[in-house]
Structure formats: C-alpha cells, structure tokens
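Bench notes, afternoon.
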Amino acid sequence: MFEHIERDLKACGARKIVLWGGEQYTNEKAFRFYLKHGFQTLGEFEHNGRNLDMVKYLKEEI
C-alpha cells in the first residue's frame, strides 16, 4: 500500500513525506518500517517518551 501512495505523491509533484508529530521511538515495528522505506530521522522531541520526526525525500532538495 505504501508504494502506491508514494507513487501517487510523486506523480502529484510532492518532494517529500514528513512524519511530523512523529513516531514513538519505542514503537520498534513502526520505526523499522519507516527506515526500511527510506525515511530518515529529522529531529526528536519528548512527549510521553522519546518521539522522532522523520522525512523521506522523493526528489532531491535544491
């Protein structure tokens, strides 16, 4: 499913996907999923535990 969404976003001209508000670091299954699909950690914050903002660049940033 994720691959279909990513393809549609690229076709619409999206340059990146941002998981803003993040992913809880302790949710290892989700964290591994996003890493596997090319996301990078953008930053982190503390709210009921460690949370990570993540990004996947679909096109090179200028």
